[in-house]
Design brief:
By secondary structure, the protein is mainly alpha-helical. Helix content is 69%, strand content 0%. The N and C termini lie far apart (97 Å).
């Protein structure tokens, strides 16, 4: 342990403490604008917060769905619990509550980063690292996006467990037992696993902590063999369960997932992350993977890999364990998001939320050591303070602007559309935004502009036919509905519902194309299997009338049958009896009830 860190265990450091308080106030003010933000549906907030059964009605859900949360791809039971009960407590204002929770957790994380780095390298280093990390624009996605409560909470439990382990190491060095600290680590481990499967990395992080203190690997194994064995057990038992649904999500995405492509994506992702860490001026909610990218685009990623590897070797030769642990921790927390393990998105700023701490800590320590060798104490303090203020002011202003982008789908995705005009996702998000506000012409314009890229990306939204129908383009709406079913990478039942609604709502003939007829027949099978859809009488009768007009009594039959099963069938359907019987046998019409007259 360094002498500065040892002094910190008993010394009085009012300056850094006041600095931490100022930092927490600044971060709270900076992120307070999120309290007025809503949810970003359909950009994952719909999946995680709005539409899941265990969130909409926690008490009516099964324990299996509460704990394994299969719809999200991997278990997130703790954020699910918080979402559900915030919604239960305040149905009208729960988005503000959840945004406030994200901000509160981020403030706690800033304090934990300060406490941990302070123990390793002193209070001033801890303050600078926590300030640069807490105000960094790359952290905005995790804090301003309700869906990423899982990421913020996971890091809280990871840092909390590491801090408890650090105190345990102190007590062991003093010849004391620390069973309570081990129990606390185990509890935080379980809570962290309830936020993200990435928490299984905790045993490796604790091992690095013990090794940093000068303990050999053999000594660690001897002293804490049972502890590490117990903490490692979830890797064997939990991870296969946790990643089953995630694998299904990834496998459903078309494209080459071979090792070569994964490595290419990992290099591009690392290069993007390095740029966002050093020059965070162009942050986006998505960074597309370019198939067949030019070699020049791999240069930042290759440079980052070579630089980190070279730095690691140099530190290993110098036996500087603290600096080497910083690099190893960054690599450890980046590993689940490296793209070598397939992910639905190529990269994202939220994947930097944990690794960024250790990279910043390493950079601050390196600059501090270099400066100590070359500057006089007074000049050092003045210049470092001035540079730090300028850097933090720049980060704060950039973060403020970036936080504002997360206010709505429009503010978030318009910059992406301008920067990546051939990417399909911004058009879908903006179309959804305008459609939800009833701005049908704007929705139609943006969806039509992006339609060629949607077809290339095999993702055509099920609401696009409705938008086109609303602006007087029913033929185009029908074509889009059919194309969506043909080319969407994963056809949902809603696509079939949209097709039938477009055809019947606009009286568009089915035509004689066998492929289209087959799709319509499949759509009827899907539609009639949904009781909630069949319970809507106006839709049911509209489809029955449409198929009778198309001389397809066989397709009208399930809708008529369902109408006759109702307590009081609509009288108008007996007017269709003759047309139906002329096309189909046997008849299904019961005698006309007296209330309907002749």
């Amino acid at each position: 342990m360094t002498s500065e860190a040892s002094q910190d265990r008993s010394g009085n450091f009012r300056g850094p403490s006041l600095g931490l308080l100022a930092l927490l106030i600044a971060a709270a003010v900076l992120y307070s604008q999120t309290l007025s933000f809503g949810l970003l549906d359909p950009f994952d907030d719909g999946l995680y917060v709005l539409n899941r059964p265990e969130v909409r009605d926690w008490w009516a859900s099964t324990w299996k769905s509460r704990i394994l949360t299969p719809e999200t791809g991997y278990p997130v039971p703790l954020p699910t619990f918080l979402y559900a009960h915030a919604r239960l407590a305040a149905p009208e204002s729960f988005p503000s509550i959840l945004h406030g929770l994200n901000v509160a957790v981020h403030l706690i994380n800033i304090g934990l980063v300060f406490a941990l780095i302070r123990r390793w390298q002193g209070p001033w280093v801890g303050l600078v690292v926590s300030a640069l990390w807490g105000l960094h624009p790359a952290a905005v996605e995790s804090v301003a996006w309700i869906t990423n409560l899982k990421t913020c909470l996971w890091l809280t439990f990871l840092l909390g467990a590491m801090l408890l382990w650090e105190r345990r190491l102190d007590r062991v060095e003093d010849g004391e037992t620390a069973c309570g600290a081990v129990a606390g680590v185990a509890l935080l481990y379980i809570l962290g696993l309830g936020c993200r499967p990435s928490m299984v990395l905790l045993p490796a992080a604790l091992f690095l902590q013990s090794w940093r203190r000068g303990t050999s690997a053999a000594e660690i194994t001897t002293k804490d063999g049972l502890v590490f064995a117990g903490l490692t057990l979830p890797v064997v038992v939990y991870m296969p369960i946790a990643l089953t649904n995630q694998s299904q999500v990834v496998d459903s995405i078309p494209g080459d997932t071979g090792l070569t492509v994964k490595i290419q994506k990992a290099v591009l992702a690392l290069g993007t992350a390095a740029q966002n860490l050093l020059v965070p001026v162009d942050l986006m909610p998505i960074y597309p993977y370019k198939q067949g990218a030019h070699w020049i685009e791999y240069v930042p990623g290759v440079a980052a890999i070579l630089g980190l590897c070279g730095l690691g070797v140099a530190l290993a030769l110098k036996s500087d364990r603290t600096w080497l642990v910083y690099l190893l921790m960054a690599a450890l927390l980046w590993a689940p998001f490296s793209q070598v393990v397939a992910l639905p998105r190529m990269t994202a700023d939220t994947y930097l939320y944990g690794p960024m701490i250790w990279l910043i800590a390493h950079g601050v320590s390196a600059v501090r050591r270099w400066w100590n060798r070359r500057a006089r104490p007074f000049r050092q303090t003045a210049l470092v303070g001035a540079l730090g203020c300028v850097l933090l002011l720049g980060f704060g202003m950039s973060s403020f602007q970036q936080i504002g982008r997360w206010k709505s789908l429009k503010t978030l995705w318009e910059p992406v559309q301008h920067r990546h005009p051939r990417l399909w996702k911004p058009y879908v998000m903006l179309g959804h935004y305008y459609r939800d506000r009833g701005e049908w012409k704007k929705a139609a314009a943006v969806l039509t502009e992006g339609y060629p890229y949607m077809k290339q990306g095999h993702f055509i939204p099920d609401f696009m036919p409705e938008v086109l129908s609303r602006v007087g383009q029913p033929r185009q709406a029908a074509d889009v509905a059919v194309t969506a079913i043909k080319r969407h990478r994963r056809v949902e039942d809603d696509h079939y519902q949209a097709l039938l609604g477009t055809l019947a709502g606009n009286n568009i003939p089915m035509g004689d194309d066998p492929e289209v007829v087959s799709i319509v027949e499949k759509a009827v099978d899907v539609y009639t299997s949904h009781r909630a859809w069949m319970d809507i009488r106006s839709n049911r009768l509209g489809l029955a009338r449409y198929f009778l007009a198309q001389k397809r009594a066989d397709l009208a039959r399930p809708f008529l049958t369902r109408e006759f099963e109702s307590a009081e069938p609509n009288c108008q359907i007996w007017g269709w009896e003759e047309a139906y019987n002329s096309m189909s046998e046997p008849p299904i019409f019961p005698p006309r009830p007296d209330r309907c007259g002749d």
